[in-house]
Write a structure and sequence with these properties.
Elements lengths: L24 H13 L14 H12 L4 E5 L2 H11 L7 E5 L5 H8 L3 E5 L10 H6 L5 E7 L8 H11 L2 E5 L7 E2 L2 E2 L6 E5 L12 E5 L2 H10 L24 H11 L2 H19 L5 E3 L6 E3 L4 E6 L9 H10 L16 H4 L27 H10 E5 L6 H16 L1 H9 L1
Parallel strand pairs: 2-3, 2-4, 4-5, 5-8
Antiparallel strand pairs: 1-9, 6-7, 6-11, 8-9, 10-12, 12-13
Helix pairs in contact: 1-8, 2-8, 3-4, 3-7, 9-13
């Protein structure tokens, strides 16, 4: 019998103690308030300022240091809405990082534009600014830059690139509720930010999304586009744009208002525990956190990313390391597992009978995603990236267990290698 759990030893933990979502009587009361009001749609009778959704929009905009917020049905719709409000149309190219959830790219297609995949920085896992600039063509209209795992992109360099080339920047903040760059929360620092409130997110009502921005005209366009082309202050049955109905329900708005009250403290705890975990991991050979950047003044995590160096960890493959870690009671994974363009919809160019929007005559260029290659993204997805659920960070005891388990594997590396080889 060995010391490691995979060889018969005692695990560090049975399992980590966390639950999500977190709710209590105040959330029940919020939903009942909306239920009993009889106003389940923000358009029902009553004063507009009494709408739960309208109040949430004001509260969330203030929390995320923005002037405007438009709440919508989900995070994918939020990205599409931000692109369309910013003027992206058929034939336009939109840059997007190779490592993210597929919605960051599929929303571009839904806006009738062409995703162009960009490689990532090996130390931060965020879109690489130089690679982003190198990918710009005369067709490039915008970029969806993702604060992947809640780690802010380099907004200084990306802002400069956007200004130089006249690009719309949509910050995909689905992972980054509460994240800050230079003391200001992400989302509205350049043009617009898109959020998700899906059940795994750090602010949730089950499903839902929002777009935030400072620009009045962009906000007016976003409101109209999410509201079947209506314009604020004009007659109800007067429509100005071809647009869907992306409105959030009042029950969702009420629940989000209640959940938002917890978010600042939860974000502070995640950030502090994340910093403590990073300092500890830096002391373990073969393991490291993402590069620390003093311009990031707060991180609102979605994943906690660990960088795994197989060679430095005794040539133990990542999958075997993860299995041994799970046996110690620490369950982690490889996040999305592949660059976005390796998904069948892109790798096999599955764009329907007509191939739209790739085949659109307004684009007029070839785009074969089976030939796309972003080497850094491919290597990181294949062998380096390890992701912990962000809610592990809500309890300091969980952080202690993660540190102890990884250190235990390192301290007993010969035993681990024998198990791998056996």
């Amino acid at each position: 019998m060995g010391k490691l759990a995979v060889t018969g030893g005692t695990p560090v933990a049975e399992s980590l103690a966390w639950r999500w979502p977190i709710w209590d009587e105040s959330d029940r009361e919020a939903v009942l308030r909306a239920l009993e009001s009889g106003r389940w749609c923000r358009l029902d009778w009553g004063k507009p300022e009494e709408s739960e959704v309208a109040r949430f929009e004001d509260e969330f905009a203030r929390y995320h240091d923005a002037k405007h917020c438009v709440a919508v049905t989900n995070g994918t719709a939020a990205i599409e809405l931000a692109l369309r409000a910013g003027g992206v149309e058929a034939g336009d190219e939109v840059l997007v990082p190779a490592v993210t959830f597929i919605a960051s790219a599929s929303a571009i297609l839904m806006a009738n534009a062409i995703p162009v995949f960009v490689d990532i920085d090996p130390e931060t896992y965020q879109i690489a600014p130089q690679a982003m600039e190198d990918a710009i063509t005369d067709k490039t209209a915008a970029a969806v830059v993702v604060h992947y795992a809640g780690y802010p992109v380099d907004l200084d360099r990306i802002g400069a690139i956007a200004k130089k080339h006249g690009l719309l920047i949509v910050e995909d903040c689905a992972h980054a509720h509460g994240s800050e760059w230079r003391g200001r929360k992400v989302g509205a620092q350049i043009n617009a930010g898109a959020f998700s409130f899906q059940s795994s997110k750090s602010l949730t009502c089950g499903e839902g999304g929002a777009v935030i921005m400072d620009d009045d005209d962009l906000a007016a366009a976003a409101f109209s586009l999410h509201h079947i082309g209506r314009v604020a202050g004009r007659p109800f049955y007067e429509h100005y744009r071809v647009a869907p109905n992306l409105r959030m329900t009042e029950l969702q708005g009420a629940l989000l208002r209640s959940q938002l009250k917890r978010l600042p403290e939860q974000t502070r705890v995640r950030h502090e525990n994340g910093e403590r975990l990073a300092r500890a991991l830096e002391q373990i050979e073969g393991i490291s956190p993402l590069k620390r950047d003093e311009r990031i003044t707060q991180r609102g995590y979605y994943f906690y990313i660990i960088r795994y160096d197989q060679k430095a960890f005794g040539d133990v493959p990542r999958e075997k390391f993860l299995a041994a870690l799970a046996a110690e009671g620490i369950h982690a994974g490889a996040a999305y597992g592949r660059p976005v363009y390796r998904n069948p919809v892109f790798a096999e160019n599955r764009f329907g009978r007509t191939g739209h929007p790739i085949s659109c005559s307004l684009y007029g260029r070839d785009m074969d995603y089976s030939k796309v290659s972003c080497p850094t993204a491919e290597r990181i997805c294949a062998e380096e990236q390890i992701a912990l659920n962000n809610n592990v960070l809500l309890d300091a005891n969980n952080v202690d267990a993660v540190i102890e388990a990884i250190a235990k594997l390192r301290d007993n590396l010969d035993e681990l290698r024998r198990w791998v080889c056996g």
